[in-house]
Each structure stands twice: as structure tokens, then as C-alpha cells.
Amino acid sequence: QWAVDSGWAFIAPNFRGPNGHPISTGSNAVVQDIIDAVAYVKSQVTIDTNRIYVIGLSGGGHATMLMSGKAADIWGGASAWVGVSDLTAYYQESIALGTTVWQSIQSACGGNPVTDSAAAAQSYTRSPIHFLHNAVDFNIDINAGINDGTVPVSQSLRAFNVMAAPEDTLTEEEMAYFVTEKAVPPSLTGQAPYDPLYGTGGVLFRRTSNSCRITVFNGGHVINYKAALTWLSLQRRNVTTTRTGKADDALKMGITAYPNPFNPRTIIQIQTTEAQRTQGIHVNMYNLNGQKVKTEFIFKERFETNPAMAQCIWDASDCSSGVYIISVRVGRLLLTKQVALIR
Fold first, then answer.
1. Would you say the pTM of this structure is higher than 0.85?
2. What is d(CA 60, CA 57) in angstroms, rounded to the nearest whole number?
3. pLDDT at position 92
């Protein structure tokens, strides 16, 4: 309903049967089905090809990550929730935990993926972790529930590690702590920003690196559709959010808004590099339903008084009280900031 209300074209391809069938569980047929579904929608309605998104929960989270790597030329953004990234690791985890999931993986792959070479090859091609490195032209949001009793949080953390810069990856000890203690390791405390879409205490850990954001949330094997869809609504292909490399342009770009909370005006300041200033700056404001409420384009000529800082004033007199998202795009870089309008 959210997609309909927002004017999106929406399609939900059926699985190729339950997990455990050779033609399901991330098979080539599953991948092609989703590619064909996108092509069908494009043939029926006018689509912004920079805003084609993929989203999924559980098996759909696995499929979302798999499609992000295997069909990376399609997407403008991806949101994967509590999905499996490595089938062979999940096979071993299922045996250790005493669940029966390993049986489905063995049936889908045609044997034991640890000891049988043909089954291992099937597990490899069905595991997103081996293909996520291709997802470089769009942002991917990976979410894991700290209390998930179905898919260990390490499945999401390892997917993040594949995409992250070396200095941003999590250690084996940190990932093991998440799983065994169902808590954030002491070495990672203080990395839980407040996100109103997740609620108070909803985000336990969050980190962004290259084109990937990982969130460990206070919950189980579930999806927060409003958080996922609102985040997706801000994404565009070839506009990636990064926090990599000490000299990366993204580290030299920042947003401030004051006052915050505000009523009805707030001053938005954007710090940029010289190279970024030549491209101009696009500033958009969205409500939490992903609807754009204001657009501002800051031309490079407006840096004359302060060459390192651009500024605009948002007058929200025609908006109702609530939380809004400021989206700032400069070339391929995208940063966001949340502000609160209180009347």
C-alpha cells in the first residue's frame, strides 16, 4: 500500500517453490525470474531507471543481496532484511544449532556443500557473499535483528564486510560476540544513531562503508517496511553514500541544520571540496513517507562568500509537524540528515 500511495510501480515475483527445491533457493531461474519481472514492469509503465529498487525479508533478503550482486546493472537501491549471505556457512550453523535448515540447503544444492564438490559449486553460485562486490553503483542497506533465532546476525555482518573498506570491517571476535551474546561488542558501543524510523533504542549498531550500510536493530526475524521503503525512496543509481578512505571526498562533505528542531525555518549548510563545488548541489527534503516536499539547487556561484560552505534556508511554513529528511547530492555522493519541525 505504501508503494501505491507513493505512486510506485510494484511487483512481487513468486518464489520457485519452497526452499529445498533445486530450482528455488537462489537458483539461476530465480535470478532470471526477477530480471524478467523488472523488464515486464518497464514494458507496461514509464519507469525512472535510476530508481528501480529491490527489497526483501528472510528468503527475500537473501534474494535481494543475490540480485544486488548478480544483476548490479539494474538497481538504484537495495534493502535486505535478515537474509542469508552464505549458504555453506548457514548449512554448518544449522547443524550446530540443531535446526533442520541444513536439510533444505542440501536438497537445493544436491548434496552436502561442505564435502561434495558439485553441491559446493551450487552453494557458491547461490550465495550473495561471492557477488556483492559488484554492487558499486547503488547503495545497499543490510539489516539484522539482534534476537533473530532463524538467521544469525553474522550472515548480515559478513555481507557488509565483503563490501566495506578494510578499515571498516568487523573482526571475527566482534561478529561472534553479536551472535553469542545477542548484544553489541564493547568495542563497537556508541555507534547507534537515533533513527525515528526504527524508534527509540531501535538501532543498536550502524556503520556505513563504500556503498553499503549495515544496521543491527533491536528485534528478531522481521522487517520494518516503513524504514526500508523510506530509505529506498532517497536512493538513486550512481549516487552512492560512502565513508571510505581517509582522503575520500565523502569525508570532506558534511551537512548541518540549525536550529534543529525548528519552526518554521532552518538554515542548511553544506561543507564541500573544491572539486565538488564545480558540480552544484541538489538539496531535497522528504517526509517519512518518502514524498518530496521541497527541492533546492545550489549553484556553484553561490559559494562566493565562503568557498568551503554552501547555505540555503528551508521555510517549512506549509508543512506539518514531524520528522523530515534532508537529502544532499553532489555528483555521485549522497548524504542525508534528519530534522524535526515542531509547531
1. no
2. 5
3. 96
